[in-house]
Amino acid sequence: MIKFIARIALYLTLLDWTGLVAQLNGPPGNPRGLAPYVLVGETGKSLDRSVKALIGKLFLADFEVLGKYSPANDPSQVVLIVTHRKLTNIIDGGPVTGYLGGVLRILVFEKGEFTYIVCQDPQYWLNVYFGAEYPSIGKRVQSVRRDLLKSMPKLRGRFMQPYAPRTADPLEIADLREYRFNKRAPDITGLLVIKEFESHAQAVSTIADYFAGAGTGSLVFKKNYAQGRSILYGISIDGIGSDRELLSNLPDDDLNYSAALPYEMVLNGYTLYALPLSLRLPLSAPAMSRKQFKKVKKFERQFNQRLTELF
């Protein structure tokens, strides 16, 4: 009898979570545009067992795990950074901004007695990074998305729902391709130039030396494109710009935004670029308020200064 009651309680809890997601995003089938993440489901296993099962399924589906870490050193969550040859083929030969979409993040986190999986939605992010060029790659991106969601491990609760709060102005596809938080905020064409090196070789060497030495941070992942002429880096730094500080600049609601991490940089030729925080963070949390955005803008000045001092 006790086990039966426990199962009923678990079932009702999962229904409550599904109801919450529906409340946040509207009912299934309601065309509300795209969300940055997909709430895949609840695993019914511990965090460690869930991550191991996920890695095994990803391997069988030909996904490559480029990195694995716990944002803000929080033991209750793990982010896997993955890619796939289909995604790499899409990214190679695309715009410089396209390299930012060359990986997908999968968050596994504990909340109470449950373990959830959330992943980035490639349709959302590549609409941003490719802009007007997206229609030429749209079907291939959908194929990557299907492969990603099919590669999930066995779940106790399967949701496959958008994972983002309801917003007053949903981000439709056209909005994403020209997105900026407001008229004075940057769009995808306004990449932050962190540093221009004397050569590509010097850039690669300098970045490698920083993370291999006593630099205040770690290299979470690295992915080469265009035969090594372009490189995507995922970084986690200490102090100003740390994971904890980045997360503190996202909305304080019931969602876990750690799937937005780690922060990334793109080396293209001899120039090191990044997405401005005043674009990157609102895209990661579409329901960001004006008040929260002002906080991001204030923090962005310190963050940019920190990035330029790294190398």
Description:
- The chain is α+β, with helices and mostly antiparallel strands and 311 residues long.
- It folds into 2 domains: 33-177, TATA-Binding Protein, CATH 3.30.310; 192-310, TATA-Binding Protein (2-Layer Sandwich).
- The chain has 10 helices and 11 strands.
- It has helices spanning 2-25, 47-60, 85-91, 122-130, 138-150, 173-177, 200-212, 243-248, 277-284, 290-310; strands spanning 37-42, 63-69, 77-84, 104-111, 114-120, 157-162, 192-196, 217-225, 230-237, 263-268, 271-274.
- The protein has a 6-stranded antiparallel β-sheet with strand order 2-3-4-5-1-6, with helices on both faces. A 5-stranded antiparallel β-sheet has the order 7-11-10-9-8.
- Strand 10 and strand 11 (271-274) form a beta hairpin.
- Helix 4 packs antiparallel against helix 5 and helix 9 packs across helix 10 (290-310).
- The longest helix is centred in the first third of the chain and has 24 residues, at 2-25.
- The chain is globular, with a radius of gyration of 19 Å.
